[in-house]
Amino acid sequence: MEISRIWQWLNLLVCVLLLIKSEGSGFVPITYLEDAESKGAVCLDGSPPAYHFDKGSGEGVNSWIVHLEGGGWCSDVSSCLERKDTRLGSSKQMDTQAGFYGILNNQQDYNPDFYNWNRIKIRYCDGSSFTGDVEEVDPTNNLHFRGARIFEAVIKHLLAKGMENAEKAILSGCSAGGLAAILNCDRFKSFLPNGARVKCVPDAGYFIHLPDVSGTKRIENFYKGVVETHGSAKYLSKSCTSKYGAGLCFFPQYVVQDIATPIFVVNAAYDSWQIRNILIPGMADPHGSWQNCRDDISNCTPDQLDAVQGFREDFIKALSGVQNSPSKGMFIDSCYIHCQTEMQESWFKTDAPQLANTTIAKAVGDWFYDRKPFQHIDCAFPCNPTCGKPVLNVKVNPEF
Length: 400
Fold this sequence. Notes:
It is built from 13 helices and 12 strands. It is of the alpha/beta class and 400 residues long. It has one domain: Alpha/Beta hydrolase fold, catalytic domain (Rossmann fold). The longest helix is centred in the first third of the chain and has 22 residues, at 2-23. Keywords: Cell wall, Cell wall biogenesis/degradation, Hydrolase, Secreted, Signal. It is found in: Secreted, Cell wall. One of its GO terms (cellular component) is plant-type cell wall.
């Protein structure tokens, strides 16, 4: 009986491995950028930055996707110390292999427009969406706030590896990495050759400015702490900071209209991380009355669903800087999900989410190559049948 179970598990493992092999690049090894340490471009703990690189081929040898990993933020010394000895604060703790799927996939059947490009995933270990730059290091905690230096060091390293000859390039990212792709979009383009086609594709990085269900401005205060702790102001839009102050300029809605580089926003109007951490954070729900709703918005009471629909309305209003520009695109579906470009299931498969009968992969590809503009906002939940897959587990940040 026991032997039979072992064989069943082994067969299942083989099937899973074959599926992984058939659908993507598999696992790409890590590279540590040791010489960045001399420039002070280091993780929170002082270890060197790291990235994964899957080389392009054929017509894609001069095309580059640089994808920024996500993982939230730390807003003060205490929360940064909590990350310092984890993969989000130290390259010493990172997995040495990374799976490349979705927009990073190397197979044409699963990533038709970008499969043969050079594809890079920059690991996230600074806690500021690659915007921090504080020279001083407190000897008592040995924390380094150097996210902006990490971004520059890795980009310059990639330029020396061939990106200086780029004809096409995309800066993408998921969650905090998606926000980083927004905040660093023009900066990325400034490193690339003048004649290159350079665009940005942030995924689930359009975090909006609003109070939680208790009326507390929790995310506003949190982002203010991130910017102050990491010294991020110097890397934020000057036009924005002069009008609103640096803290608010961590919110895309206040900076996106100032971004000159073409940008395509991929986001759910019911972003599950934002609803669980910004609209209904745990601290705003001490009795757990929202728990079922937070787990799955199809379980919300009528009053709770009204609040969630209100979030969608606020999200759409916050997109005005995208909607009013012909160089910008957007795919705003009604799925209850967070991050869609890295997962094969939501990027490009027969049952992937669609808007206007178009998958995210095709919408981004059409927009990037100027085949067709794409600016679509989905109808209100629960209208889209292509959002039928179960909600993926999204970590709830206890700080909220």
